[in-house]
TrEMBL record:
InterPro entries: BOP1/Erb1, WD40/YVTN_repeat-like_dom_sf, WD40_repeat_dom_sf, WD40_rpt. PANTHER family: RIBOSOME BIOGENESIS PROTEIN BOP1, RIBOSOME BIOGENESIS PROTEIN BOP1 BLOCK OF PROLIFERATION 1 PROTEIN. It comes from the Eukaryota. This is Uncharacterized protein. GO terms for biological process: maturation of LSU-rRNA from tricistronic rRNA transcript (SSU-rRNA, 5.8S rRNA, LSU-rRNA). GO terms for molecular function: ribonucleoprotein complex binding. It holds the Pfam family WD40. One of its GO terms (cellular component) is preribosome, large subunit precursor.
Amino acid sequence: MKGNLKLLKIEGLFFSLTSSSRESRAVLIHQLSKKLTQKLPFKLHGLAVRSTFHPSHSIFFVCTKKSVRVYDLLKAKLIKKLDTGLREASSISVHPGGDNVIVGSKEGKLCWFDMDLSSKPYKILKCHPKDINNVVFHRSYPLFASCSDDGTAYIFHGMVYSDLNQNPLIVPLEILRGHKHSNGRGILDCKFHPRQPWLFTAGADKLIKLYCH
């Protein structure tokens, strides 16, 4: 099964697997401590491309090509639908605070959602001329990143304030280059170091690079 993995401790260790199919088992949730696997107890509306957990609550995000559906797993209900307005979403990341979400797309656009404000994007950034393959928030620094088949990774400052009346501050910081194209593909994935302001990138050129400020 082709998919992506996300880890979170809720009441034990869980991870989700998303398959690029329209089957009822396209999104699976696995609980390692009990060796249990269950399919998502909701009807999927659209083709699921990614899934991820809320950092601290039993909230589960399923990103389809057109929208993000937010579920409460304990209450077994849909609590929010985020309308991306994108042609085809490709990736999703949830801010460590849990109320802000970024979504990357196949048209090189990145959407920032403040779920306390609206189900529509708070900000849309056109940052890549080719497909965005992944977006990611840093766990502890006010940073987020995107990577693309154009061979670049973009680093942004993204400050979320505790004052709910203050909108998030988004500032482009740097464009990282260094990967060569291979068969029309560029940077396939990116991940932040859990403690340092460092970014790892994995390219179609079969290289993994570490960028340090």
